[in-house]
Structures are given as C-alpha cells and as structure tokens.
Design a protein that fits this description.
81% helix, mainly alpha, single chain, 9 helices
C-alpha cells in the first residue's frame, strides 16, 4: 500500500477544492455561474474511463460474479448517501437564523459521506497499482472541484453566510482522509481485499456518473446544448484515455 501517495492524493483533492471555492468566493462568482454547468459533463467523461479501468484491474483477480457483486455493492454504498440527508425541519421567526437551512444540511451530510467514499475509492485504485491510483486521483480532484463549487453556491443561495459556507466546505473536504483510513485498514487486513476494493470503487464512481453527472448532461432544452455537453464529455473522456495510456507506458 502506497501510504504517502494516498496522503498526497487526498491532500491535493482537498486543497484544490478549497482553493477553488476560496477563489470563487473572492473573484470568480460571475464567471463560474456562466461556465460551471459544463464541468459535470467533462467529469462524466473522466469518470467513465476510470470505471472501466478499475473494473479491468479487478477482473484479473476476481471472477465475473465476484466483480459484479463488488461493483453493485459500491454502487449501493454510494446510493446510501441520499438516505442520510435530513428532512426539512420547521422553524419559526428568528429561530431559523441560528439553524443551518434544511437544504444546506442535506448537502452537508451527503457531501461528508460522499467524500469518505472517495477516500475508500482512492485506496482501491492505488491498491491496484500506482498509475491507476494517480489516474483516479486526477478524476477525484476534478470531480471534487466541481462538487465543492456547486455546493458552495447552493449554501449561499440557501442563506448560509459566506464564512460559514467556506467552513462547511473545509470540514467536508477533510472527510476524504476518513475514507482513506478506512480503506487502508481493510486493505491491510488481507490482500484479498485489494481486488474487491477496486470493484467497490468502480461501483461508487459509476453511481456518481449515472446519478449525478449524466442527468446533467442529457437534461438539455435544445439539441445544440446537448451536443455541446456531449462534446465536453467526449473531451474529458479523451484526455483521461490519453493520460491513462501515457502513465501505463511509463510504468
């Protein structure tokens, strides 16, 4: 297990998302409001390649039945995130001002769990090989940046003060290390966990693509917008294919 690489990858994902949010808060809000809607489509292309790469790595050790079970388990695990989102809470008068808005609380809970899953997925990828691990890390950084920026604007639109919104992003970004610790514990217990962990990682990323990213790409009001988003997704996919191939050539 490459612990230093895992820590660097986790720190990079957290730092990039936090820096992105800080810059957005200071200078980039008008620009990001205009162009942010293209980034999930690019992330969909990146993650589609990652899912295939993880499944390929795990297939060298697991049977198709075992691989399918691991991937479905990861898909279901990612889906559980939604069940942890708290429901709306009634509040009256000034009491509401001291509470986190319900919409923001749902995002806060889901994001913490999702980032933990990202940490587990990183361990599964690095356990399958350092080149694949760094490919996944790049995808995680890309997706974390999109996710944290999107959530930051939702926090603000929900009535959360600027400093508190930044604090929420900081705290949830750190939960990726919880996932790394959990993944390392499982993988260190037995080498038999390595391939299933890669399968679970593939399932979690597949859920992100299917549930979070593809609906954004295909929910377009006209053919021109749809083609633009599909082109951006193809660019993201092409970049990751070239990057993955280049890394393996230099392994």
């Amino acid at each position: 297990m490459v612990i230093p690489s895992l820590l660097i990858a986790g720190a990079t994902a957290s730092a990039v998302s936090l820096i992105g949010v800080a810059l957005a808060a200071r200078w980039l809000r008008p620009i990001l409001h205009k162009w942010l809607h293209f980034l999930p489509s690019a992330a969909a292309g990146v993650f589609a390649v990652i899912v295939v790469s993880l499944l390929e790595e795990a297939s060298y050790t697991l049977s198709y039945a075992q691989l399918g079970a691991a991937a479905i388990g990861g898909f279901a695990l990612a889906g559980v995130v939604g069940t942890f989102a708290p429901e709306n809470v009634e509040c009256h008068g000034e009491a509401c001002e001291t509470r986190v808005p319900a919409r923001a609380r749902r995002i806060l809970a889901a994001d913490s769990i999702h980032n933990t899953i990202d940490g587990v997925a990183l361990v599964g990828a690095f356990a399958s090989g350092t080149p694949l691990g760094w490919s996944v890390a790049i995808g995680v950084v890309f997706h974390e940046l999109v996710q944290e920026l999107s959530e930051f604007f939702v926090y603000l639109e929900s009535g959360v003060p600027l400093r508190r919104a930044l604090a929420y992003n900081f705290l949830t970004a750190l939960t990726i290390f919880l996932g790394i610790a959990l993944g390392v514990t499982l993988a260190s217990a037995s080498e038999a966990f390595v391939a299933p962990l890669a399968g679970v990682a593939a399932g979690t990323f597949a859920f992100v693509v299917v549930r979070d990213l593809l609906p954004h790409t295909f929910h377009r009001s006209n053919a021109r917008d749809l083609l633009l988003h599909m082109a951006v997704a193809a660019i993201g996919m092409g970049i990751m294919v070239l990057l993955t191939a280049s890394i393996h050539l230099h392994e």
